[in-house]
Amino acid sequence: VPMAIAVGSLCAAFLWSLDVATRTRFAHPWLLFLLPLGGFVIGLLYHRMGKSVEGGNNLIVEQIHEPGGGVPLRMAPLIFIGTVATHLFGGSAGREGTAVQLGGSLASAVARLFRLDNAGVRVLLMAGIAAGFGAVFGTPLAGAVFALEVLAVGRVEYAALVPCLVAGIVGDWTCHLWGIHHG
Q: At what angle do helices 96-113 and 57-65 cross, to 10 degrees?
């Protein structure tokens, strides 16, 4: 639950930031001309600081299937900043990957903090993804199903069922408590 609250809060900040970036871009259309420069700076940022997170969603899926090195915490701020900056300059970036990576990154950090075993890491990663997906889209049940089925690739991790449902609901409610509503 605390991890889902953190993920829901981060997703609320992300959605708020996306709204501000989009309104700013529409108020200042000339920002579109800075898209190549923005893309270069984001690419440079990932090149300098993001080598360990360049796998993105694939890195998280790998950690669910075979926990090992973990998902670096730096993935959260990099994907947050990169996605918001992309929207600010008129680029195209979806919220799905960002939700998965924000939730997975924070969940992995919590798993390391509490030194969970591989099974615990797997469940917490799935719950983090459910919280992120549920918070970003306002669909906690879909977040839980996404984390359970899509990331398990053909096999449902039943031990993660309740944690994913709870995390999806808590992530979504937390986002709403911050005043973010999905339209």
A: 40
